[in-house]
Design a protein that fits this description.
The complex is a heterodimer of chains A (133) and B (578). Chain A has 133 residues and is an alpha+beta fold. Helices cover 21% and strands 35% of the residues of chain A. Chain A has one domain: SH3 type barrels, CATH 2.30.30. Among the domains of chain B are: 85 residues, no CATH class; 154 residues, no CATH class. Helices cover 61% and strands 0% of the residues of chain B. In chain B, α14 runs antiparallel to α15. The longest helix of chain B has 28 residues. The chains are: A alpha+beta (133), B mainly alpha (578). Chains A and B meet through β2, β3, β4 and α1 of A and α6, α10, α11 and α13 of B. Chain A: Its main location: cytoplasm.
Chain lengths: 133, 578
Amino acid sequence: MNYMPGTASLIEDIDKKHLVLLRDGRTLIGYLRSIDQFANLVLHQTVERIHVGKKYGDIPRGIFVVRGENVVLLGEIDLEKESDTPLQQVSIEEILEEQRVEQQTKQEAEKLKVQALKERGLSIPRADTLDEY
Amino acid sequence: MAGCGQALTDSQAVLKDYFLENESLLVEETAVEAVDPFDKMDCNTDSNLMEEGPGKPVGLQIPEKASRTQEEEGTEEEEEEEENDLGDPAVLSAIHTAQRGLKSSSKLKASNMLGMSPVSLHFLCQTMDYFSPISFRSTLPSASSPARHFGLQLSSPDPSLFYTLPTSRPLRLSLPSHRTQLHPQHQRILQKQQQEQRCGPKHQSSRVGKLWSQKPDPYAGLMNQREKDWVIKVQMVQLQSENPQLDDYYYQEYYQRLERKQADEELLGRRNRLESPKLVTPYIQKAEDYESVVRIEGSLGQVAVSTCFSPRRAIDAVPHGSQEQDTAIYNQKLQVLYRIEKMFLQLLKLEENQKGKLAKSYFYELQSKQLEKIYQALKTGDEDNSEEAANGLLQVLSVRKGKVLVARLLLLLPRDQAVHLVLSITSHLPFLIRRDTADQALHMLFKPMGKCINLLAFGELLQGLQGLMVLQPGSQERPITVVLQNQFGISLLYSLLSHGEQLVSLNCSLKQHSSNDLATWTDMVVLIAWEISHMATASLAEPLIVPSNLLSLFCRYVDKQIVQQLEARMDYTPMATS
């Protein structure tokens, strides 16, 4: 804020740990090292965190350069409060497995729903066939 | 050293190929020098961490330094091994030694030569390695140590470095699955760490924060001040505008309100006024505009020009004369709308000027001239016939936008002109009411008219009231019946009566008003009271405001029966009194 009062800028967030949510649903956690006028981000020591239910798993990814338009939101992580979370950290394999299971159940539920609708002569347009906005 | 140096040069060349255009030999030398610490340390590093067998330190030029680094390595290694899950001991040691000023100068020199901060150099090496570990291997067949030390600069920097203690491992990583492309060294280190940590104690994470604050972030400052300023500069350029009040209206409003609030607070006695910083957006003068392309009003885009290469008919886009002679209703309506638009633009400009500029006498004159212009346009004052003039006004008032225009204009006009407008409105009230059934927009005129009514002189007031009571030619009923059935009408009537009552009661000495006037006034009141009482309660409209002094007014002039009926009717209006 001391650079540009009354505006939002990422300058003050540099070198701080951030959580970045991307448009494809991924959650990245890393140190914000560099930005530019498009809010493209350079994340250092990035970890991709996958959440399933109350569990989460971290996949270390290294350095990320994220194009600004793909960011939904980002926020600073308070390093002191970071560890008091009710969530339980698990290994990567476990979380990926959980994710797979979750996806599967979702797909099955979706399939049932679509089937039911089809029987009634209705249809819901799929998200991937819609425009993004 | 020669072999090592050669290897280093090669790796440097690879580095250059990837990122740099700098081709001075000096760079190489200094870079070689700078990279030396890595070499030394690496050659002494634990064999576990290396792919090939531990080689002898190739070319130990500077024995003292080597021994020193060896010592440091020894002590650091242990803690680092435990600390770094994804390990980067070489880099860390390098950093520490650099910090201790071993080869700091040369390192800096190297990085400056390369055009980046020392941290970036680390980064570069890391990323380089991540992307092409194989290529390194292939180009460095001879010396194993350089490969080793570059190999050691592992890509995936340690995410838990900054949020774990040396002996804590909240991050329990099993061997990475095939989904994660990890460097083989990396995998090995992970495995090793895992094994170690399985027996290691776990620490509370509450100490993490403290540790973080103690440990300086070696990767901080990747973005130096110049770059930050550059980003800010770009963002500021985007904020440039010729008219910040227009382009950045909300921020300007917000800041003005903030300032006003602070000024008020300061006035109230809070001496320590906090200066809230203001974003000073660069204000630029309007650049000279020039039409680069020929444009004809009304044409779509560029005009087709006939040349010898493209003989094309030019677009005939000239508007066909003026349509004032045309008496079609459609055109008339368009005319009215057009007039309203013109007046509105003038009004908006006037309002903006008023808001912006201080009340200087020069501006005031200018404003009054502009105001006069608008007023004349409204009245279509060029016509002598007052009927025609009134007609113009009524046409404007028949349109919703016209009503808005008049409402806003009334607030700005000088007293006489405002009164004139109000009187014309009241005298043509039934007509306006009939025309308003679609829009239902007359109520927006109420407030400004109410303000004007309070400025009316007694004579003018009577004039207005009389207009309501005049029997229209060709109809049996008086306008007042229509007026009473309309919300706006009845509210207006009540306001007029209330004001009249005020005038009469304030000026107790009857000499103020001529006896004629008073007589007319009494007649009016009686008539109106009669009309109200004889109107079915259901058809009486609910006024926007019921002035409190009306009933007393009626009491004075009318007999009890009628008063009772009036009471009944006026009590039906649940709206708050003025």
